[in-house]
Amino acid sequence: MNIIIVGGGVSGVVTAIRASKSNNKITILERNDKLLKKLLLTGNGRCNYFNEDRRLSNFHSSDNKLLEEIINIKNLDEVLDFFNYLGIVPKIINGYYYPYSNQASSVRDALIYELNRKKISVKYNYLVKNIEKKNDKFIINDELKCDKLVISTGSFAYPKTGSDGMGYTFLSKFSHNIIKVSPSLVQLKSNSKYTKKLSGVRSEVEVSFYENNKFISKENGQIQFTDYGLSGICIFNLSYYVSRSLPNNKKEIRINFLPFIKDNAAIWFNEFSLSHNKCIANLLEGILNIKIVNVILENLSIDKNSYYQELDFNTKNKLIESLTNFKFNITGSLDFNHSQVCSGGVDLKEVNTSNLESKLISNLYITGELLDITGNCGGYNLENAVVSGILVGDDLSDKS
Ligand SMILES: Cc1cc2nc3c(=O)[nH]c(=O)nc-3n(C[C@H](O)[C@H](O)[C@H](O)COP(=O)(O)OP(=O)(O)OC[C@H]3O[C@@H](n4cnc5c(N)ncnc54)[C@H](O)[C@@H]3O)c2cc1C
After folding, report:
1. What's the 318 CA to ligand 1 centre distance in angstroms?
2. Could you tell me the residue ranges of all domains in the chain?
3. What is the position in ligand 1's atom list of the atom closest to the CA of 32?
């Protein structure tokens, strides 16, 4: 059987390796002069490929029931087995899996070794521009023919790696419904006058996303303030919800600068101030970056040299509110050039969840980020890419 895989990213390459169990003739078409360009950037060059925390809540889709049919404990076990088969020894840091070598290139090289061992052919510098189906054959760029076609072209995210969203166009032409695609795992923009003043500051916080004053989700971790807004893994994870919210809805990130206080922050702060006879600015500097202290005091017009115990009841309440619920208006996110992944994609209702074959076009398969599956930071997107490659590849090898 003649199989063509469009796109030599992780999901396409894993598909090829798994499909080659039988005597299939497999060709990967890759527009770049190299395979797996994006993989090298993952995990800051260290490739965070898996996570010990296997809860489904680390993934998002418009259809959680179908999501679970694809991403489940059994299929995640398959991912670990696959990395084991590749000979990648894990280094596990706080539940995050990296190759023990600390190099994404180790994973790339192991994948390429398998492709070569299985004699899978790759056409480099081959841009697929057009796909048609005639008489049960797929015809690519009016010149290549195959019986089975796998579209693994990735999303719009990081287009400099080769993924510029062409897969959505091919699939739309085959009448697939593409659920709105937006940047995700990305920095958020804010028009707050305080972002510039806080630029460069990092702080361990709890952050919550509110849409039209309704709580949506929260995360703990390090926030980074930038000229344009907010960054950090906790912000990246919340960006999924920002990307799905309606344009005109009011969006807010609320920051708790005192996440270590489990009970009543007002009582804690009162005791803290009583046990340290310091003016308010010096008191706060014992907890927070000086830029945060200045912004909070300026915002409430509190004199830096005043003492907490001297403040009136209202001002004390406002100070505690600012320390635990500081609001940043969110105007959107940075674009696809900055986003690690995209939310949205091919509607899961239109694929068979056991093998990711299109329900609309027989012998057409869809993998990786093209699907309406988005993972949080922590290895979940590579898990999705590998799961999909395994499901499609195994199906292609079983059927032949
Ligand atoms: C900076 C960064 C860091 C990341 N870090 C992590 C991490 O640590 N952990 C994690 O789990 N995820 C991470 N991700 C996300 C993860 O890399 C992706 O979700 C995953 O690689 C998607 O795989 P894919 O096979 O669907 O698509 P891609 O890897 O995007 O591959 C698509 C391939 O198709 C090719 N292609 C596209 N169009 C055509 C065409 N028309 N003709 C021919 N070829 C074409 C492209 O050149 C590309 O090689 C990161 C992403 C980025 C950008």
Report:
1. 46
2. 2-183+343-399, 188-333
3. 47
What's the pLDDT at 263?
A: 87
| 3-class DSSP assignment, residue 161 | helix
By most ligand atoms within 8 Å of CB, the mutation choice from 71, 102, 153, 161 for ligand 1 is 153
Pick the CATH number of 2-183+343-399 from 3.40.50.2300, 3.50.50.60, 3.30.420.10, 3.40.190.10: 3.50.50.60
Q: How many Å lie between the centroid of ligand 1 and the Cα of residue 154?
A: 5
Q: Helix (H, G, I), strand (E, B), or coil: what is residue 72?
A: coil
State the distance from the centre of ligand 1 to the C-alpha of 184, rounded, in angstroms. Answer: 13
Write the CA distances from 28 to 25, 105, 115, 123, 150, integer angstroms.
10, 20, 10, 6, 9
Tokens of 288: 């927070």
10-residue mean pLDDT profile of the chain (400 residues): values are: 97 97 89 98 98 97 98 97 98 98 98 97 98 97 97 98 98 98 98 94 98 97 97 98 95 98 94 95 97 97 96 97 97 97 98 98 98 98 98 87
